[in-house]
Specification:
The protein is mostly helical and about 190 residues long.
């Protein structure tokens, strides 16, 4: 099998697995069903992914890698309003690019988290770093709460793809950025 054909087959396997995991759940989807949807044998699927867990990790890893890159970018620069907006834009763009994968976390958290055990620590640590950066240097308790709220707002809105229907990505992006900025800015306590 040539590299291009193998890569295309891996991509088709991942795409079909995302659809089936989203529709039926990770635990109840079999590798046989995925292979049938792709039009290959189960043995061929095993050539590309030795286990269902390996397939799930391969689906989630690109999202985690891009998310980690956003956090590294944030931490390498100052915490100015322009930089916060730029990083929020990158967060939204990353989640939009991986909307189907991000949706797996919301729809089947109980099914996929145990299978993603090798990645969970990295995901938690990356989210903690982003939350800390969004809260700003020497953050108050209010700033820390707002940073948590922004991450939850972005996650919930983007992973609820079914409720967004056919809303164009540019409208989703614009609305989420505006909402995130409002949450982070907020009012000072006692104001």
């Amino acid at each position: 099998m040539t590299l291009d054909v193998a890569g295309a087959t891996r991509d088709r396997i991942r795409d079909e697995a995302i659809v089936l995991f989203s529709d039926r759940g990770y635990a109840t989807t079999s590798l046989r069903e995925i292979a049938d949807r792709v039009g290959i044998t189960k043995a061929s699927l095993y050539y590309h992914f030795p286990s269902k867990q390996d397939l799930l990790v391969a689906i989630v890893r690109p999202l985690l890698t891009q998310w980690r890159d956003v956090v590294t970018d944030a931490e390498s620069g100052p915490h100015t309003p322009a930089d916060v907006r730029r990083i929020l834009r990158r967060c939204v763009d990353t989640m939009l690019a991986h909307r189907a994968v991000a949706g797996l976390f919301l729809r089947d958290t109980a099914g996929i988290l145990p299978a993603l055990a090798p990645l969970v620590g990295d995901l938690v640590e990356t989210n903690s770093r982003l939350r800390d950066w969004l809260a700003g240097p020497t953050p108050s308790a209010i700033a820390r709460i707002r940073a948590v709220a922004v991450l939850e707002l972005l996650r919930a809105a983007l992973t609820a793809g079914a409720t967004l229907g056919d809303v164009p990505d540019d409208l989703v992006r614009r609305t989420l950025l505006e909402s995130a900025e409002l949450v982070l800015a907020g009012r000072e306590e006692g104001a």
